[in-house]
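REQUEST FORM: STRUCTURE PREDICTION
Request ID: SP-0412
Submitted by: Lab K.M.
Chain count: 1
Length (residues): 813
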Amino acid sequence: MPQLIPVYVGEAVKSDSDQEIKNKVGPPWPVFLQSRHHLSRDGTPRVTFSASNALCSIALVGRNRSTVAICWYPRRFAPLAMSHFSANRLPLRRSTVMAKINNQNLALPKGHAERLQFPKLIAKNPNYFGNFPEVKLPPVLQLSNDTVFEELTCVGYNPDRGLLEAVIHVKESSGYSGNDCTPGSFEYIRFFVDTGGGFADAGLVAINVHDLPEALDCAEQSEKALSYSASVSYAPPNAEDCDDPVLPVVRAILSWQSVPPANNPNFNPVWGNHLDCHIQLAPGPFTIHDLIEDLFEEGIKLSSIEKKYAAVAKLPIPGPDPEPLALQALTKLYSEGPAAKIVPSHRLGFAEVHKVIHAPAVSNQLVKEKIAEFAALKIDWAQLVGVIEKTTADVAFEQLDCLGLEGGVGFERLVATFRVKQQYGYSGDLCTAGSFEYVAFWADWEDKCEYSYLGTVAVRVHDIKRSQPEDLCYTAVLPVNLDQHRVGCELPKIARVRAVLSWAVPTSASDPNQLNTFGNLVDAHVQIRPGIPTNPLTPKISILGGIPTSEIDSTTGFTTSTARFAGNNLAADDYGRPCPFGRRVEIQGPEFFGYKYRIQVRDVSAGGTWQTVFNPLLLTRWDGSTYPSNPDVLGFFDYRQYDQNIENLLGNWDSSGDDLWEVKIEINLLGSIPDTHLIQLDNTAPVASVDITTLGGDCGKFPVATKLQGNFVALDANFGSFSLGTLPFPGPITPSSGLLPTSAGTWNLDTAGMKSCGYVVELFVADRSIVNSVWGAHNYASASTGYCLIQSRRWQTSLPAKASILCGDRNPA
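STATUS: Completed
RESULT:
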């Protein structure tokens, strides 16, 4: 239980209503949830409140028995609470610290009032802030790329895990649409990647944020800004082997409460910003084609062989992992060309010196051998040791910039982002073993000013030549299990975290303050999401089909109107419509290591019996590797520790049909209570059909400028949307899309201005079912019909073969 300090916050009387008490105690301390009137042990009338950051009561105090409101704040909140009130001590007891309300309005950042009205302002004028000029409406308040409330601070990539990461800072205590017990608001991040042909959309993710009060941590440091992280998977195939590094530019766009548009890398958010950085993709496999290409570059002509093996040119050639370069090879590598001006001798010899200095036992013989080895390379060993001893936290080659906490409840991971600044000095290029950047993670989850070591992550780096001297941005990711550190939403829990970067050798696992020769450290404050500590007597399904079970209606089995995916915080349906589930339903929840669990399902609509889910699982470890997990003969799986199952995957149920089902988890522990949830299925595809009713009908030939008409059907029990379009060139078809089902729809197309060609009218229909537990995946259906636009009969005789067949000519001239 945190230490509580009473702070006097205002006068009140017993007869006051809850709202009157709130007005008297006043914002921002505290936000009330409920109150009750009662008598204390001595008979004093008292009203007690539970609040988001304090426990408050009204009591008679002082010599004149005046009625006052008192709030007990956790120690970390008290200094900032008192800063809002003028000092006024009252004689309760010696340890009491009190203050009277300061009624002066606190200064709020620019844009605070507009954030509270953001949806209404945009509804009236999409260009209210001047960042949407397409609507031709004059702006009322010019505001864009504002970073007062939130700011994107880092973006990076982990080539081994295939993850694009972004770290943001949430800076203010209010302006985020409610405290931790409310839905709050969302920070949207869209990623774009440019591999040379322009920016391409790489995915969208969101972070849930709230109004969290200002406070000091145990070290008397402000807890703002709070650091959050978010990621999307990005692992494109790379055709280039290790000889040709692929270094795309990544752009992340942060936008509060407004989704950055897809395929618009130049979008300017009202609140938020964008950030660019170069990343390095993992090299593609070495293939037969690469081997022949290398031989050509060496002047060996193998044209006949190249043609002979064309069919297998892209097959990878298996081979061992490259060995680290020896000291002699490194010395030669960095003594010539531009590398000689960049890489100092104490960097290439650092790992060797570190081994000797930190050897478990002092060895004169080993030092003698190293002196001789380095002397043969014209390097003074003693001088090298001296330089390394004097050098600490050198960031000329690599620098740790950001640290944040990613994920919702049960899926958290710490993310550290660092930059590689030089082109040389990392022990070899991509065709060698290179070297490692080690990131050690520490945390003070309970804010006691005592860091605990969590683990170290190694990220491989190399010498990479660049045409421009840009930095390369990398991330190190460590999953963490915070289930035992959670508290309720009434009292936000903020933790101190630290990341320590060290090149070539791991940093200390016992001293969070130790810095090696190369690298640095970064501290941050992160929010532990609210929740209830887990208990093996109550096993839990936290997520079904990608949706938190708290956001699945317990009577209908559909998603609620505010449901969002647990992994990326994106809405299950943009319009708040209820969604069913289809095909593979993933079951996720907290682990209870040392126990076994079983997943069972039953058809509620048909009154079926419980069926055990035996599907084997493919689990993912914290380092990205995978392994199988199989049930025993009764269907029980072993719970895996979080670092061995970072997705908390408990089961994969391959559903069928459209009934209401119940999903249950039980644990092999006497007295445990199974957890059950209803889920509505929809595995049936929509109905789609389209035809042409204009004279000539389907597959007809029409002069350019004909106004075509037709019918279409787009139906589903859980209808999502439909779209109509023309291929291969777009035409002005109406309606082009819709959100309502139709059994007798009509479409129109004015072909004036369209090219002479063979066309297809295509109808695409989607339902709202969440298919395979994936955001954006639904049951689909499509239908199409063809027609041909012609200028004249003469033109028709010269139609391309493909277009002629499309227009009905089976034997084109």
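NOTES: The CA atoms of residues 132 and 738 lie 24 Å apart.
Reviewed by: T.R.
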